[in-house]
Amino acid sequence: MGDFYQNGIITTLHNLSKRPLDEMEAELCRFAKKRPLGLILPCLYSELETEAMPNITRHLAQVPYLDEIIIGLDRATEAEYRKALKFFSQLPQRYRVLWNDGPRLRNLDDELIAEKLSPREPGKGRNVWFCIGYMLSSNRVESVALHDCDIVTYDRELLARLIYPVANPNFNYEFCKGFYARVADGKINGRVSRLLVTPLLRALKKVFGPMDYLDYLDSYRYPLAGEFSFRKDVTTDIRIPSDWGLEIGVLSEVKRNYATNRLCQVDIADVYDHKHQKLSADNDAGGLSKMSIDITKALFRKLATNGIVFNQETFRTIKATYFRIALDFIETYKNDAEINGLSLDVHSEELAVELFARNIVKAGNHFLDNPMEAPFIPSWNRVSSAIPNFMDRLYEAVDLDMAEFGDGNSDKV
């Protein structure tokens, strides 16, 4: 059970009472009459064949307050898209599956490429961006939750707690981030958040001094959580990275657009586990190595927009400062694990820190070597300005795909 302590400069909503789920869902049903609620699920086709996604879908089928579920499907052939439509047909809510690799959406993407508006690379950021575009074109929901599709410990209470802060008309929150303890199978997980993001933020404060942006990011208990919720208006002019910097990019954008009293975080699960990325120490293009580089680049870019000037000496100082702070954190986590009867491999923790330290310099060098890089996906406001009927055609393309390859069950309203 969480405590009631408020840390940092955003509101933390705790799980203090183990409130009955049926009571919370009944309240959400009342909220939905005034503020329709939706859900975005960015997924790979391969995730439909894991133990996580069938369980998630079974839970979602029992959720009574959702007006629309938007599923972004990546890496799917035509046959796999057909299977995906059958897979999601058990949902009683209105749902739409975006076949991101299908010819209709690819043709639309070619138009974006021609206008230099297309996401730079495939991945979760691109998937989420297209789902947001469909949500805006559909115009059926006012508040939306988003969560990953590899959560093996999923329960629909997670969704209820995640969407509640932006669904309740008595709250003024525009954006809410989920958090949870990354503990499973007797181990403390969440290495990138624990061993990279938190010590790097502390190192940046030490190098550059107090900064509102760094205090803001450091207020989030789990800044890399893939679960968040928001009011629809948040998404129209947001600019997000297409790589692993997505979560940091989203947090940065909502900070730019809203006062911190409109932002919050909420405890959404006592137990949370999902698939784990490999460290990939010898491959900067995969695993936690790529993730750490992308996240660090996202931080450096945002600091540069705040007037911070970087050079190679700066990055070496940041690396050295980070390394010392991160090693101290390992000792802290070791003690925390021991008092809770959990295991923690100090050797593997230090290997991760050594990799992340090297990647801080790599991210810095990439930042310096690519001054003209445009790392963000354009906002949907810009797309609508450049191609006025694009969103209407996106809406139509998704419906045509489902009509052609599905069995008609998706038209539930």
Explain what this protein looks like in three dimensions.
With 413 residues, the chain is an alpha/beta fold. It has 14 helices and twelve strands. The strands form three sheets. The protein has an eight-stranded mixed sheet, sandwiched between helices. It has a two-stranded antiparallel sheet with strand order 7-8. The longest helix is centred in the last third of the chain and has 28 residues, at 312-339. The two termini are 38 Å apart. The mean pLDDT is 93.
H/E order of the elements? EHEHEHEHHEHEEEHHEEHEHHHEHH
Estimated share of beta-strand residues: 5-15%
Number of separate helices:
14
Largest sheet: 8 strands, mixed
Radius of gyration (CA) equals 21 Å
The strand count comes to 12
Q: pLDDT average, as an integer?
A: 93
Structural class: alpha/beta
Q: Using the alpha-carbon principal axes, give the shape.
A: globular
How do the strands line up in the largest sheet? Answer: 1-11-6-9-5-2-3-4
Distance between the termini: 38 Å
Low-confidence stretches: none
Helix content: 40-55%
Oligomeric state, counting identical vs distinct chains: single chain
Keywords: Transferase
GO molecular function: transferase activity
Protein name: Cell wall biosynthesis glycosyltransferase
Organism: Oleiphilus messinensis
